[in-house]
Amino acid sequence: MSNEKLTRFLQSTGLINAGQAEEIASDFIHKKFDKNSFLLQAGRISDDYLFLDSGFMRAFAYDTDGHDVTTGFYGSGQVVFEVASFFTRTPSQEYIQALTSCQGWSITHQRLNALFHARPEFREFGRSVLVRGYAALKSRMLALITESAAARYESLLRASPEILQHAPLKTVASYLGITDTSLSRIRKGAALR
Amino acid sequence: MSNEKLTRFLQSTGLINAGQAEEIASDFIHKKFDKNSFLLQAGRISDDYLFLDSGFMRAFAYDTDGHDVTTGFYGSGQVVFEVASFFTRTPSQEYIQALTSCQGWSITHQRLNALFHARPEFREFGRSVLVRGYAALKSRMLALITESAAARYESLLRASPEILQHAPLKTVASYLGITDTSLSRIRKGAALR
DNA sequence: GGCATTTCTTGCCATTTGGCAAGCGGGTCC
DNA sequence: GGACCCGCTTGCCAAATGGCAAGAAATGCC
């Protein structure tokens, strides 16, 4: 299978040129995930830094009452891993599960670190992945505080309509910080207005 | 002024030894901030990676309705900077302001990057700072979704009681994702129970 | 095809949180 | 002293969201 999407992704920030991208990409190995299978289970240490080539995943955790809460959605072209567990080598609190069958390119923590040491340009790229994730999380948090549930839903619809096609409503609801009942009502309201 | 707190901080993860810490710390310059002065203004590019030696700061942004929303509090022993602006060299959306008079040790983006390139151990340390911030943000988000405002307030009281001594109630409220009116009622309720 | 399970919607009502305005007490400035 | 501003509280009511349960619709399984 071609790793073309991965090499294009590596070049996308302008930090890595075509030749470097080819060499770096050759360190990633191809992986497939059946629908509903897990990339990561709570209690395990995240050891896949996975570039998602096709398919759709979600990350979730259980709160103290046993409800699962969606912490993130990932589509093709994104990097999927649990930052804290992967980099600090501690057991994950989260699960990451394939919502559809998925394919991607993975590298272990050890090999990623070796690449970071050997290749300053990839190191910069890795940092930019981290920083972008950080910024996205921050703006999601700000929206959670300042915007209504309906506004957050409509932003999500605009930004990532694919999510609604792959994830059941209640996982989308917990991602938005509301219940499935409320999201159902919001959708009805949005349709009428 | 002694940079002892900074050198101890650098050694705290075990990634950096005493001699390295001394050398790294010598690249930081001492800075003072009057109460209410700004470490960063919106529209500017964050160029201080500041280790806070003493004092208390808060970060905030204005939402679309013009309300200011507290995005973070920082006490002594913490690193204060706006991740996205600092690393991507783009204008900040946020302000960072001294709630008390503050002192700390600062390094510019350029010098920090030079240090990262020259010193693998400091690079690792820098990543661990980023990853810890990321994890903290994530757990704050989870609390925002799964816990009541009262529970979030009590967690904050337990984890960082100093905040309540330095920040007026309404900035704490916006940090918790509620209004000052609600926080006032929660405090009353908590006292009675 | 038919049964079981999951997903989504809806009604009813409770709870949480917000908006607004008034009031109070403690500072500060002149 | 008086006029002000600020931070916090409180009363009243409205709006947003949740909890629960029932039913309809869609999906999966044998």
Automatic annotation (TrEMBL), chains A, B:
SMART domains in alphabetical order: cNMP
Domain Cyclic nucleotide-binding positions: 16-116
InterPro entries according to UniProt: cNMP-bd_dom (IPR000595), cNMP-bd_dom_sf (IPR018490), Env_Response_Regulators (IPR050397), RmlC-like_jellyroll (IPR014710)
One Pfam family from the record: cNMP_binding
UniProt superkingdom: Bacteria
SUPFAM superfamilies associated with the record: cAMP-binding domain-like
Name recorded for this polypeptide: CRP-like cAMP-binding protein
